[in-house]
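Two proteins, back to back. First:
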Amino acid sequence: MVANLSQVRTISITHCSLVIAPIDIWTRRLPMSSALVVALEGVHKKPIRKPDGTYLFLDLVPGSYVLTVTSSAFIPFKQQIETAELNKLNPVVTVPLLPGSGYAYPSSVTGISFSLCDSSGASCDGASVWAHASEDSTARARLVQDTLAGAETAFIGLLQGQTVAGESLLLRGQGMEELVQVAEVLPGGGLRFVQPLKQSYRRGASLLPAVQTRSAHNGVVILPFRGTLPRSFAVQAYAEIGNCSASAELTARAGEVITAQTLIVQNNKK
């Protein structure tokens, strides 16, 4: 018997191509859904937001995409994603969100806020800013074995406060130091970094709280710090935009967000 063609049903199978997992890097909590706009440049179809706070993109053509995450509360996020490089069974990209000028501070957090401007007094928008705690007493962890230059992973002792992908730390030991960014927390007390280490470090080297961020549209910079911190500690901050830069030693206090003096960037060209 020949089936009536009108009775034949078309079965559509969707494929989850990309999962975006945004997280507030300060609190490790998922932001409110209304606070975020998650998109891929050139892709008009909006992602599906799941109850767990992740965003799903379905049936993408394999290739390269530019992810953007915008919000009134966080610094805009932008990253190029190659779908071929993702785990086909679990194509998750964690998006670490840093606080911007519209961020509502949770209670008992530790941080520093300041404004960044040029010599004319105009606000500096989008300047690269990095900062780190200066004192060894702030160390969140230490290496438990020697780690050579070029290594992408390091094994550490007990970490003070949980960490997430995207968080920055300052690795310091034996007169050397460098900023590292966590790509993945490994089982058994390991960290995988976004970039290989530039230098070698011996067992006992410290991992200090650090931040890599940008100034907001109005020049405001917020430096969030996590971990079990001393009552008061020194922070070294740096800013750079074009040929201009600035640096300052600031003071942070555990459980408070301190408003520091305005930093003025100066032209480095001779």
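And the second protein:
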Amino acid sequence: MLDDSHIRIFIRELWKWFAVNKRTLPWRDLTEKDPDKRAYLILVSEIMLQQTQVLRVMVKYKEFVQIFPSLQDLAKASNAEVLIAWKGMGYNSRALRLRDAAKTIVDRFSGQFPTDMESLLSIKGIGDYTAGAIRNFAFNIPTPCIDTNIRRILHRFFVGPENVDGTWEKGDRELIGIAGKVLEAAIGSGKGNRGIRGVRRIRGSNASVCSSGSSVSSVSSESSSSWHAALMDYGSLVMTKANPKWELLSSELRSICKAYGKVKAGTKKVNKSEPGIDLDGRFIPRRIIRGKVVEALRGADGWIAIDEVVRKIGFESVNDQQWFDELLKGLRRDGLIEIRASKIRLAR
């Protein structure tokens, strides 16, 4: 059972912290009057922020939206054009998923973003949290969501610390309920709203999730976007995964945080269960080599011999030719490259 007084303290202290520590990011506080334009900019930022540090995204985001200033510009871009614009971001499949999502919105929804969760989630490449972000930041529809940062904050404050193996005592089904109650209290007090409706969709305990169909009426989008931005910033700057900065918590926050002082610093471990290969005694994940192959092709005008690409990425000492061939086939399946005999190039 959630303690209402703890929720009030949490909200009051987080708003106070955010007023002083809010980050300035290019995808925040958008001034565009067209909600579809705002939704496009939010979509680009959310896809970029998946698995990439904020500082790197800040640079590439500006470059990317200059190259593709509108949804329509991105929708008609070729694979190669998108991959070249994505240079330096990594996880290149995201770029094509983003372009494909833009094409779907143009083709199926006439270039207008749907606002309901079911329609947003029907667009390949848009997941629960991204759909919620679009609703919150572009369409004045406050929507309780959970991503990595929010999950960590809510669990530590209202449930307790994570387990030794990094798992959580409570799953996202319980946490989305907490998120909804906290959101309503954070932006709904005195607004005359009807509240946040219940959760109907949870994809899994490890997914970023969102309350389907949730809304708070008569509440400005700025309130909701600011609340979620506050959670993002607090998770990124204070309530970090391995080394939370407990000394930055106010005495009030310390008094209500159920994980206070219980989360120990951790060390990053190499995940050898991830597909990869040993190269000169060093484990290299397959995703890293995929990225190197795409990077080697970005500056090329046309077809490049596979042997030349192998030399460019420093992969000559690998004896398992079949492993590398399968990697290239995977890149082709994902629409990143084309293969012709012994040559490859970025997909057109």
